Structures are given as C-alpha cells and as structure tokens.
C-alpha cells in the first residue's frame, strides 16, 4: 500500500477542529496504537556544552549569545557511565547524549561511540544528537548499534530562516535521510512558542508526517526562554494551541512516540495531563534537559501516579 501524503489543507483542517473533536480523535487513534496508560522515559546528558558555532535563535549554547553558560569540555567515559547508571535506576529506558556541535568530526564520532558502548553495557537504549551527519558517519553509528539519532527540523521551511541562518532546511533533511538509510531509528520534531503562526506549525507537521517512513520518535518542545538569546521575551504561546499541536501530531503519526520535551517546567499539571490525553507518550526525566531545568523526578512520579500512568518497562537487552 502506498503511503498517504498529507497536504496543507488536510492538516490545517485537523488542527482547527473543535477542541473536543480533535482530542477525541487523537485519543481514539492513540489507544489503537499504544497503551494509553504508559509512558516511555528518556534521560538527557549534555556531553559537550556551549561554544557552538551555529546561530539557532532559541539556543543557550550558541557562542554568539551571552547567556552566562559555562563552556565545558567533552565529558569523560566515567562521567557518562555514572549518569547512565543513575538514569537507569530512576526508570529511564533510553539515554540520550547531546553535543553542542554543528557536526561531529570523525575523531569526535569515535569518542562518542565509546560513550554509546558504555551506555549499551548499562542495558539502556541509546540516542545521540550531535548535529549534521554524513552518510559515512551514520553508517558507522548504525554499525555500533545506536538505537536513535535525534535531529530536529525545528519549524516549518517558511519560518526556518527567521531562526537559523548558519545551516539550511535541506541540510537537516539530508542528515535525516542519511540516518534513515543507515538503519538507525529517526527522532525528529520541533519547537513551538518561537513566534511562529498556526500555518507554520502546520508546515512543520507536514514535513515530519510526509517523511517516508515517518520518524519513530517526535519530540515537541515548548521554547524554554533563555535570557541573552534573541528569542528571549517572545510572546508566550497559548497552551491550548500547544495541546492542539500534540493532538494533530498524534493523528498524523499514529505509530510514533510523541515526546513532551523541553518546556514542561513552565507547564502546569493540567496542561501536561491534556498533552498526555492528546497522545503524548514520552517525556525526559531528570532535573536537567541539556542545560535548562526540567521538573524533578519526585514531582513527575507524583503526577504520573495521580494520572494512573506507569512507566514503560525497561528494555531487556
Ligand atoms: N547541536 C545539535 C543540533 O542542534 O542538532 C544537537 C543539540 S541541540 C541543543 C538539540 C535540540 O534542542 C535543538 O534542535 C532544539 O530543537 C532543542 N532546543 C535547544 N534549545 C532549546 C530551547 N531553548 N527550548 C526548546 N528546545 C530547545
Ligand atoms: C529535543 O527535541 N529536545 C531535547 C533533545 N531533543 C536533545 C533538548 C532540549 C534542550 C532544551 C534546552 C537546554 O536544555 O539547553
Ligand atoms: Fe548549536 Fe545545536 Fe544549539 Fe544550534 S541547537 S546553537 S546547533 S547546540
């Protein structure tokens, strides 16, 4: 069967449905493809922080903005191992390592591969986000058994140039193609609350949903506003609009894990509960994302208990 190709009008119509219809449809699809009462948990670790040459207007790690962030050297294998053990103990099934690079050098990649192997031996799924990858680098990651590569499209092609000028949309699509063709699972999503309009949110979803095959994992981030970045002071997004985004993502990509990613610190419990009802079924666990704060584990555990949500079982490999 050939894959459905979504068009702008169809996606806009779903996004704009009456809220109750939208949530009902999203929840109905969600429960035919996933257990509605479990959530997958990943933990993030920044293995190389700050001093990034790129100019992503949201990012505290860009060298171009004074955000007060300390530049850090690449973490040691021991530091990675300790963090992975903690994550596992706290219930994470996947460990995601991020580096503030435009792209890794081949030498960087070999260092990260040692880290991936250390995480694998803790019996966790592995994910890395290192910037752009060549075809050869993707194959190398596939060879060592990396489970997921995260590379976000971030926003629609139309709005992209307002946010990043140091690499273009096609570069991102090329990296995703290399990852897909190498056999590593694709994790790709975007950020809301950057001053984009509804059509631009639809534009991001259109790009993601029309990837063939669709990403296995789709992180939807709410901008964490960091003082010193160009997007600091952007008007806050209407929470209802954010929930609509999650529901539309679920309808368009029924099999994907949809991760309620950055920005949970600024959401109240009711908004997060609505996001889970709309089809989000993954979060980042732990006090820190890469550099920005995240709810603490106890607070999340309490929320999940109140919602009757349990954590997806840890991988047996
Ligand atoms: N440097 C690599 C890259 O950009 O591909 C990997 C790390 S980068 C920090 C990973 C993702 O984090 C970005 O693509 C963006 O979607 C997200 N991100 C960064 N800063 C953010 C912020 N302030 N709020 C929300 N999401 C953010
Ligand atoms: C993603 O979409 N969100 C995560 C992960 N992929 C790498 C990163 C969020 C970063 C938030 C800002 C910070 O912690 O510096
Ligand atoms: Fe660098 Fe990634 Fe931040 Fe962009 S999002 S400035 S590439 S660390």
List the helices and strands and how they pair.
Layout: H1 8-15, H2 19-33, E1 38-48, H3 77-89, E2 94-99, H4 106-120, E3 125-129, H5 135-143, E4 148-150, H6 157-163, H7 169-182, E5 185-187, E6 190-192, H8 198-209, E7 217-222, H9 239-252, E8 257-260, H10 269-277, E9 282-284, H11 297-307, E10 310-311
Parallel strand pairs: 1-2, 1-9, 1-10, 2-3, 3-4, 4-5, 6-7, 7-8, 8-9
Helix pairs in contact: 1-8, 2-9, 3-4, 5-7, 8-9, 9-10
S-adenosylmethionine binds at residues 58-59, 61, 98, 100-101, 129, 131, 151-152, 154, 191, 221, 223-224, 226, 262, 290.
Return the structural class: alpha/beta
Helical region count?
11
Head-to-tail CA distance between termini: 33 Å
The main β sheet shows up as: 10 strands, parallel
Overall mean pLDDT score? Answer: 94
Please bin the fraction of helical residues.
Answer: 40-55%
Low-confidence blocks of residues: none
Bound molecules: S-adenosylmethionine, 6-(5-methyl-2-OXO-imidazolidin-4-yl)-hexanoic acid, iron/sulfur cluster
Beta strand %: 5-15%
Shape: globular
The strand count comes to 10
Radius of gyration: 18 Å
> What letter string, H or E per element, gives the SSE order?
HHEHEHEHEHHEEHEHEHEHE
Description:
The structure is a single chain. Strands 1, 2, 3, 4, 5, 6, 7, 8, 9 and 10 form a ten-stranded parallel β-sheet that branches. The protein is globular. Helix content is 40%, strand content 15%. It has helices at residues 8-15, 19-33, 77-89, 106-120, 135-143, 157-163, 169-182, 198-209, 239-252, 269-277, 297-307; strands at 38-48, 94-99, 125-129, 148-150, 185-187, 190-192, 217-222, 257-260, 282-284, 310-311. The protein is an alpha/beta fold and 317 residues long. Helix 1 packs across helix 8 (198-209), helix 3 (77-89) runs parallel beside helix 4 and helix 5 packs parallel to helix 7. The chain starts with 7 loop residues before the first helix and ends in a 6-residue tail after the last strand. The chain contains eleven helices and ten strands. It binds S-adenosylmethionine (SAM), 6-(5-methyl-2-OXO-imidazolidin-4-yl)-hexanoic acid and iron/sulfur cluster. Iron/sulfur cluster binds at residues 52, 54, 56, 59, 61-62, 100, 102, 131.
